Amino acid sequence: MLRRDFLAASAAAASIHAAPNPKEWQVYGGDAGAARYSASSLINKKNVSRLKQAWIHHTEDASERPATVIECTPIVVDGTMYLTTAKVKTRAVDPVTGRTKWTFDPLRGQQSRSAPGISRGVTYWQQGRDKRIFSVFRDQVYSIDAVTGELDEKFADKGVLDLKLELDHDMTGLSFRHTTPVVVFEDLVITGGGGGEGPYPEAPGHIRAWDARTGKRRWIFHTVPKPGEFGHDSWSGDSWKSTGGTNCWAGMSVDAKRGIVFAGIGSPSFDFYGGNRKGANLFGNCVLALECRTGKRVWHFQTVHHDVWDYDLPAQPALLTIRQKGKAVDAVVQVTKQGFVFFLDRATGKPLFPVEERPIPKSDVEGEELWPTQPVPLKPPPVSRQGFREDEITNISPEAHAHVRKIWEAARTGDLFTPVAKRGVLIRPGFRGGPLWGGLAYDPERNRIFVGSDEWTNRIILRDGTPEEGFRYGLVDRAPVTDHEGYPAVKPPWGYMTAIDCDSGDFKWRVVNGEFEELKKRGIPKTGTPSHGGAICTAGGLVFKAGTFDRKFRAFDSDTGDVLWEHQLDSGGFATPCSFEAGGKQYVVVAAAGGKDGSKATDEFVAFSLA
Amino acid sequence: MRLFLLVAALAFAQKPPPPPVEEKLPGTPPEQPLAFSHKTHVTAAKLKCQDCHTMSGEGFQAGIPKESFCMGCHVAIKKESPQIQKLASFAKEKKAVPWARIYRVPDIIWFSHSVHAKDKGFACDTCHGPVGERDVLFKEKPTNMTNCMACHAAHKASNGCDFCHASQ
Questions:
Q1: Does residue B5 sit at the A interface (CB-CB below 8 Å)?
Q2: What is the pTM of this model?
Q3: How far is the C-alpha of B148 from the C-alpha of B127, rounded, in Å?
Q4: What is the pLDDT of residues B132-141, one digit of tens each?
Q5: Which of A196, A482, A488 sits opposite B161 (nearest CB)?
Q6: Which residue(s) pair with A441 in the sheet?
Q7: Contact call for B146 and A474, based on CB within 8 A
Q8: Of A29, A54, A562, B41, which residue has the fewest beta carbons closer than 10 angstroms?
C-alpha cells in the first residue's frame, strides 16, 4: 500500500478523534486496526545511534512485594499522553517533559489488598466538545474527562460501569476482568473481557457495546451462543450454560469504514479438559467479526477447534491493507500462541494463504472427545518451533539435558496438538506462546509484519476432581518446563524477532532476540530470551522492541533485522512501546517496570529522543 | 532471609526465574540460627500468633518480629540462656536474625494475610498447620496454587487469574 493510502486508512479508522494524527499514537494499537506503525521518520536508521533518554516518568505507586507490573502502552492525543500506572491509576502526562497533568485513582486514595489487575492502557473518545478517557480497573469501566481527570457522572453509575452487570449470566460468586483497552466506534464503547478458564465455574466473555455517553447497553453478542443462536449446536447438552472463559482478553480492533469490530477469542473453560463440552465450541478460539452498530456476526474463523491446550487468541486481530500480487488487499492478520500467523480476507474471513485441516490423535482421557482435525496455515511458516521431540531437549549443559530428559521421558510428547494425558503432556509452544499479547507491527512501505515470539513449553498433568469440587478433572501442574536453573527446556534459541513478507508469506529475516549474560560468559552461543510485550515499527525504517529478560530496549533495522541501537533499562520493559511527535521531536516511550520473570518491580515509563 | 537474598541475587543477575519446585511434605526442618520454640511461646507464654506476627501497612505479610521486640520480654525472661544471649547480641548490634523461612509467597502473588486472617477469620493453622504445638517448624501444609484454588472454590472466593496475580 502506498503511504497516502495508509494515511487515508488511518484517518478513517481513527475518525473518533477530532484531528487524526498518524504522527501521534492515538490508540493502544497505534491505530484502530492495531498496525503499531508510526508515520514519523525523524528518528531513522541514520541517526538512531544518537537516541538518548529524554525523560523518565515515575508512577510512584509500584510495589516490590507483591510485585506490580506495568504492561501499558501509552496513547498520545492532542499533545497529551495518557497511561495507566503500576496500581492502575489513570494519568495524563506531558509527552515532552514526562510531568503529570492529572491522575485519576479508581480507589480514591483507599488502600487495596487485592491485585490491581492488568491494564494495558486506555482509550480516547471525542464527540463535539466532549473528550473522554475510558479506562478499566479490574471489572469496571471509568469515563474520565480527558482534560480535567474528573469522572463523567452522566456515564453509567456516576461515571462507573460495572462489567459484571448485564452479562446475561448469573454472576453470583464469579469474577470478571478486562485487561486490554476497550474500543470505541461512533458513540459506542465496545468491551470484551470475562472470567478465567479454570475447572471451576467461570464467567463467559460476551462482547457488549455501551452508549459512550450514558453507559447503557446497546447490544450483546454471546461468545457462547444461547439456544436459537448461530453456533449453539457446537456445544453438547447444557454445556453452554456453565462454560466460561471464551473471552476477548487481548483486545479488539475496529474497521471504521466497514463498521466492523474484530475480536480474537480465548479458550472455553476448562481449558485443559472439554469432555463436558463436546463439539467445536464456537466462538472459542475464533477471529470474530461483528457489526459495530448491531453486534451481528459478519463472519468467524476458528483457529483451534474444541481447545484443550489453552491456545487462546492472544493478540488483537490486526487490520492491514497489504499488497498481494500487485493488488491492495484488506486483510485481518492474527497471530496465535501456536506460532501460526493467519492471513484472512477482511470482508469474508476466508484465508489469503491456504489453510489445511490436519488430523490429530485421539485423546485417551476418559470422557474427552477431541475434534478430529485442526487448522494449519501453509504460509507463513510458524514463527515458533512446534512439538517437543527428543532431539529438541536442551543441550546447554549435560545437567540441563539430564534434568529435562527426565521430565520429557515421564510425560507424553509429540507434535503440536498432542492430546493431554493424565500422567502429563508437554505442550509446545506453551500457552505463553509463541507470540502473545504484543501482537505484530506492520510496515506499509515494506509490506511486511514484525513478530516477536518465545520458545516456552508447559506441562499439563490432570487429576481427578472431588465431588465437593464438582468437576471431573482439575490440574496438578501447568507450569513452564525448564532446566534445573530455570532456562527453557528446549534447545536455544528461545526468543526471535521475525519479519514476514505479506505478499509471499515468506520470512524476510529472522534474528535471535536477547541474551542471558551468564550463558554468554559460559561460552554458549546467543540463546535469545523469552519476552513480554510487542514490537512497533516506524517510517524511519526501524522496529522497536523491549521485553527480553536482559532488560534491553532495541531498535532493529526493518530491512535486515540488524540491531542498530540498544539501551539497558533498569527493569524489564514488559510492555509494547509507542512512538509519536511532540514539540518538534519524535519520541519512543516504553514502560520499564519489571515485576515478573525475576525482574525487580519499579515504576518507570522511559522516553527516548534524539540528543 | 537467605532465600530472599537468593531471589534478589537472581533478579540482578539477568537470569530466568528459578524453576518451579515440587512441593514435598512434610518438609525437612531447616537449620535455624536460634533454637526457637513456637510451642513454648504459645502454650507456656500464652501468646497469640498476631502478638508477634503483626500485619503492617496493607497487610500482605505477617511480619517477623524485630529482635528488639523479642527483647522486650527476654530482657527479664530466661536472660541467662545462651540462646537468649545470642538473641540479645543480635538486638544490640541491630542485626536481623537470619531465620530460615518455612513458607514464602512468591512475589507474583497478591496474597494478603490481613484479608485471610482478619477479614475472613481463617485460623493461622489453616495454611500453616498446628504451629503452636511445634518446637521445631517444618512445612506441613501445602501452599501451592491447587490448594489455594480449592480453598477459594470451597469458600466462594474468586479463582480468576487476576484476583491473585498482577500479570499473566
A1: no
A2: 0.92
A3: 9
A4: 999 999 998 8
A5: A196
A6: A450
A7: yes
A8: A562
